[in-house]
Structure formats: C-alpha cells, structure tokens
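Retro notes (design track)

What went well: tokenization of the new backbones is finally stable.
What didn't: we kept losing track of which sequence belonged to which structure.
Fix going forward: every design gets posted as structure first, then sequence, in one message. First example under the new rule, 331 residues:
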C-alpha cells in the first residue's frame, strides 16, 4: 500500500500484497470470533453425524474435514467480495479531518462517509480495522488509515464531559421524529419479516426435513429420531440466532426517545441518528419495500443475505423520498 499525505488528509492505495493480507486477516478474524467458532462447530457436528449415519466413523472424519474446509473457503470468498467495495487492488481510500474532530472517509465506490466524535467503535485485528457505526453498518479499513487519536475521537474517548456522541451540531435535516415504542416495534417487525422472507431463511427451513428423512432411510428408528432431530436443530439454529441478533441491532440503533432526522437528495438519503449522520446512496440498493410503518431497503447484490438490509421509520420520509423509493431497483 502506498500512502500520500496532503493538507486535506491522507490517501492510501491498496497494493496486491496488502489486499492479500487484508483478506487473510479478515478470514482469521472470523475464525477467532465466537460466532465463527460456533459456526465451525455446528458445521462439523452436522457433517460428522451425517457420516456416522450413512457409513461410519471413517466417512464422518472425511465429511468433517471437507465441511470445515468448505466453510473457510466460503468465508474467504465473502471477504474477497467485500473488499472489492473500496479496498480492491489499485483502489484508494482517503481520510480527512471532519467537523469538531470527526473523520471524513472517501473511497472510489461509495459516497463519502462522515463520522463524528463518539459515533463508532473500532476493533483492531492484525492489519485490519473493523468499524462499527450506527444503523448496524460495519466496514473494514487498513490499520494504517486511522491514527490512534482519530480512533479515540471516533470512540468518544476525547469528548468533553457532557458532550453527547454523534459529533458536532451540524445543519438540521429536513424531517425529524422521536422514536416511540410503536415506531421501534414497527421497525423490529419489518426487519423480522424481511429476514424470514429472504431466500437464505426460506431455503434453510425447506431443507430442514431432509436430515430427518435421511436418518430414517439409513438408520434404525431410535437412531433416526436422535440424529434427525440433532441435524435439524443444527440447521435451523443459526437462522434463528440471526433473527434474534437483527432484532437486537434495530433496538440498539433506534432506542425509544431518540430523535432521528432525514433528508432526501437526488442521489442519497441522509439519516441523522444518535450515533451520527449516515449517507445511504440510492444506487447501493436493489429494492425498497414499505412494511407497516417502516421502509426496508435491501442492498444491491446481497439479496440472498438476510443481514444486509437497512430499515427506516416511514414517518421520516416525505413525498420526495417516496418518489426516490419508487425508482430504487430500476437504476
């Protein structure tokens, strides 16, 4: 990676070697985390049980190794695709000072992102920074991109006592609303419906009966019941956990009593939340659906992933936003 420093900020260009290290460390970060280890455990148990039912311990060992290797290779593919959005070979990322000590991030793919003081949490793993911001958004950055002072500011460790998170007082957006219990529940319900209706969730539940049938075909009745139920639980467990995590994330992003704001431009929707202002470009979404008192936006190219969507209160959106939403998916 080459680095250029100017009066306005720093620009980093991704080299091929840096790209390989980012992808490697992104996969290792998944393997080191509790969700990753849990997924490997579930995949290994499922593969081992299938092998025992079909043939015996030898087949179980072969299927176990093959299943774990396939899972790691799948994570590698997912990280490769994710890095293409701003961190691919030859692409550049720029960081510049923002208002009141914030940070402005600009890449060659997405709209510029302004992060105010106290608006994010940053986790470091080897050559990788993972930034967690409001609205459930998460993205990766090279560790060289942000200084220790900038990370401290983003996490609010430089804020004065009584200074709220979310950055400086900027211009107020066109519309604002207070999150009531009814609004929060509507957002949670819309998120749940979007996940349950997604292809990943439906395919998982459609496949759930097959382990039971497989066990009945190849095993004695007693073994069939135990193994079949175990495989079904292993298959359905992660999808149910995904629903639970998504519901919790919506409640955290839209706490009751918080004031949220929104404004519409020709290219994007601006959303002001307790942890900062987000820019959501229309071209990044494949479709938009109104569900009750919420609007569900699905990211382009991620329609098979139930965890890649944005949900907004319908009350925030005026006529301009409704017109823009009608065009989402046709761009």
């Amino acid at each position: 990676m080459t680095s250029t420093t100017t009066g306005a900020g720093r620009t980093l260009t991704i080299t091929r070697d840096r790209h390989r290290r980012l992808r490697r460390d992104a996969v290792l970060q998944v393997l080191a985390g509790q969700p990753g280890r849990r997924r490997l455990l579930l995949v290994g148990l499922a593969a081992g049980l299938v092998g025992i039912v079909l043939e015996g311990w030898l087949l179980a060992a072969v299927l176990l190794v093959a299943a774990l290797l396939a899972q790691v290779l799948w994570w590698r593919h997912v990280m490769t695709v994710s890095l293409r959005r701003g961190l691919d070979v030859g692409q550049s990322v720029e960081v510049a000072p923002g208002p009141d000590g914030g940070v402005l991030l600009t890449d060659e793919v997405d709209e510029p992102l302004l992060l105010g003081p106290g608006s994010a949490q940053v986790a470091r793993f080897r050559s990788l920074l993972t930034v967690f911001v409001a609205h459930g958004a998460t993205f990766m950055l090279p560790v060289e991109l942000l200084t220790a002072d900038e990370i401290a500011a983003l996490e609010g460790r430089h804020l004065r006592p009584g200074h709220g998170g979310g950055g400086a007082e900027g211009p107020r957006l066109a519309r604002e609303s207070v999150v009531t219990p009814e609004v929060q529940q509507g957002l949670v319900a819309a998120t749940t419906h979007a996940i349950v209706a997604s292809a990943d969730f439906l395919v998982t539940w459609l496949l759930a009966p097959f382990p039971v049938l497989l066990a009945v075909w190849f095993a004695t009745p007693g073994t069939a019941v135990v193994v079949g139920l175990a495989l079904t639980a292993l298959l359905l467990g992660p999808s149910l956990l995904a629903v639970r995590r998504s519901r919790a994330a919506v409640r955290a992003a839209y706490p009751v009593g918080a004031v949220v704001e929104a404004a519409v431009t020709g290219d994007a929707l601006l959303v002001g939340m307790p942890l900062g202002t987000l820019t959501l470009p229309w071209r990044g979404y494949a479709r938009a659906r109104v569900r009750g008192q919420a609007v569900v936006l699905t990211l382009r190219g991620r329609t098979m992933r139930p965890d890649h969507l944005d949900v907004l209160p319908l009350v925030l959106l005026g006529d301009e936003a409704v017109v823009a939403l009608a065009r989402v998916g046709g761009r």
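Added context from the reviewer: The CA atoms of residues 131 and 139 lie 5 Å apart.
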